[in-house]
Known about the structure:
This protein is an alpha+beta fold and 401 residues long. 35% of the residues lie in helices and 25% in strands. The strands form five sheets. Strands 11-14-15-16-18-17 form a six-stranded mixed beta sheet, with helices on both faces. The chain has a four-stranded mixed beta sheet with strand order 1-6-5-10. Strand 14 (303-306) and strand 15 (312-317) form a beta hairpin. Helix 6 (175-190) packs antiparallel against helix 7 and helix 10 (264-277) crosses helix 12.
Amino acid sequence: MNSIQVFEHSFLPIEKGKLEQHHFVALSKLNALHNDKYFDLRHNGIKFKQYVGVIQINGLTIEILPKIDNDGKDESVWHKALIEMLRVTRKLKVQQVDEAHVKKQQVHLLDIYFEWFLNEVQLLLHQGLIKKYYKETSNVKALKGKLEFAKHISHNLVHKERFYTTHQVYDKDHLIHQILRQALEIIASLSKGNYLYSSCKTVQLNFPEVKTIQANEQTFSKILNTRKTAPYTTALKIARLIILNYAPNVQYGSEKMIALLFDMNVLWEEYILVRLQQTNKGLRILGQRRKVFWEGIALKPDIVIQKDEETTYILDTKWKNIAYTKPSTQDLRQMFVYNEYWKSKKAMLLYPSTEYVFNGFKEFNDRAQKCGLGQVSIFKDNSTELDDTIGTTILEWFEKD
């Protein structure tokens, strides 16, 4: 299987042996299904947007990696950084994956998700799969449940030994296992030729025979969270990600593709939120708090930090390089309004950078409220490891000034 690594906002041209014309056509169909949000189509290639992750189609894997401009780090560093950011934000659990393979990029992001799912299903099989009651309407040899009289007459004029009934069944062929089976089939179809295929087939052999379904968004909403289904939470979460992002036969074509893509702006916000919550400073650190300000329209700063009843800080994250520019007027107006509505004295716009830069808070004209610009490096000094002290540094900036 061919693979390509690109950075967000980069251009990938159509090129023989890499992104070929049939890949381009299939990707254009996928993008259309998602309102053209993942990338822009150009005359002879694709211009990616702020989405990072992985796309697999017709034997081609495209990994889209985050990138801070002019940081000098190559794809292998950002491949590892993306996996770690997804792990920290609990969008990914890296387990039983050879770390040396990850470092060498022999394991793609999609493989890690597939292996995570297979491990979860193996664990469920080891613990024992649950049985559930469900209603079934069918022709049976013994009278049980409710006799469906009209259908009984039409189906059994000749076969008088049968009964057409609606009755309860208690076994493993229920919605949860049907969803897991569908995800297993997708993994089997997309992992042919790599190290995961045999593992997937082994899991499938140990999995019970259940009905084939085509799950969608509404299917997952039917699953009730109970004490009995609690062990399935993680497996269902990954299955949902796989199934809803799998697009076989896009618009009557023959392509099978899957796209696990994440908005880097959202991932950056969630990553900073988790790093702040890890500081254990005794603060209330809350994400996406909302206040309605007009006709049901709400204000939602990325992060609200509450020190005590009198002190609140506002933090808004922006995944863009601001090294040689100023913040937009719109962003500053937004921070001003956040300060007003949350009665906060300090707000900060936080950007990624190759170094830590903070020049203090500046007052809005004729106001006591302040706004500051912070730039943080996600890497430790002279290292390719993520800096897990980002949260502490940000809180120190709020406390100092």
